[in-house]
DNA sequence: GGATATCGCTTGCAATTTGCAAGTCACGAC
DNA sequence: GTCGTGACTTGCAAATTGCAAGCGATATCC
């Protein structure tokens, strides 16, 4: 199977062909990357995990973002077999590949503003080992299925 | 002078202390990073340069974003001494420091979607030399003042 | 096994933001 | 002094956001 055939979203109608524009049309809003962060760094996987995050996302917006992120192929959604009321959200390969973007945004913000969570920032300074660790953790959660 | 004293924006009221949240409150919208891209990659410096970009930003939104980016300290604005109708917008140090973020977003989008401008993508693959070149060009434009 | 709680949403609605089009106003060119 | 240009501002309809309340399916308790 060709990699191309696996893309979830055919280019759609983009305002321009610029890859940066494509990225921004997918995750260029206030909330999408925070949802990704919660999954990647805080291990969030249930609806309530995201709702209770520190930024207090509104429930209708959360539902909308989860839907869009799934459509785009950044996350996958599945019913929890242990508790059928719950759904489990997971990062896909495309989703975990956003890690370098998050790292650079965090490092940029931390070096130009007064921000919290300095331990996280410090651990990100060694990008290579941070990314390796993140990817390893993600692989592990896939094993656990 | 302490570095801290140079910050343009005292933390403001953020939804959370997370550096990623801070970054998103500053540039987490559809347009801000496209404006930065136009300056960084296309050498845009006048209002019309941005207006005529391929994504066709609306004029009121452009004015708003230029104002906000200047407030935050990502760009600076100055009257053109050659033609006093014009204003010249330039990236500050904080603005040019966004280059790694742009690079990672472009590389991510290009490897998960069908996008245009492959020459740019290819040149970004060697991140280190790409960033060095970008920073050098930025320094040059400052010399020319 | 019927009442109660929990989970993941949806709905209503006001307020803000976006996007397009049409000005406006200072300056420069002729 | 008239005309064009550059950088915006204004008006307005449409879309998006944010908050609160509700709802249906599933689990838990007694």
Description:
Two copies of one chain form a homodimer. By secondary structure, the first copy, chain A, is mainly alpha-helical. Helix content of chain A is 59%, strand content 7%. Chain A is built from nine helices and two strands; from the N terminus they run H-H-H-H-H-E-E-H-H-H-H. Chain A has helices spanning 3-6, 19-27, 32-42, 47-51, 59-72, 93-96, 99-112, 118-125, 127-143; strands at residues 75-79, 87-91. A two-stranded antiparallel sheet of chain A has the order 1-2. In chain A, strand 1 and strand 2 form a beta hairpin. In chain A, helix 7 (99-112) crosses helix 8 (118-125). Chain A is globular, with a radius of gyration of 16 Å. At the A-B interface, helix 2, helix 3 and helix 7 of A face helix 2, helix 3 and helix 7 of B. The structure holds a DNA duplex (30 and 30 nucleotides).
């Amino acid at each position: 199977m060709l990699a191309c055939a696996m893309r979830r979203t055919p280019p759609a109608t983009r305002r321009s062909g610029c890859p940066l524009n494509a990225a921004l049309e997918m995750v260029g809003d206030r909330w999408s990357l925070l949802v990704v962060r919660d999954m990647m760094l805080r291990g969030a996987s249930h609806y309530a995990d995201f709702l209770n995050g520190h930024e207090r996302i509104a429930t209708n917006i959360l539902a909308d973002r989860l839907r869009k992120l799934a459509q785009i192929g950044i996350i996958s959604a599945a019913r929890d077999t242990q508790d059928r009321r719950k759904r489990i959200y997971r990062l896909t390969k495309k989703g975990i590949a956003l890690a370098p973007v998050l790292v650079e945004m965090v490092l940029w913000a931390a070096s130009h503003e007064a921000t919290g969570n300095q331990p996280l920032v410090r651990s990100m300074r060694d990008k290579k080992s941070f990314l390796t660790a993140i990817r390893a953790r993600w692989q592990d959660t896939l094993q656990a299925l």
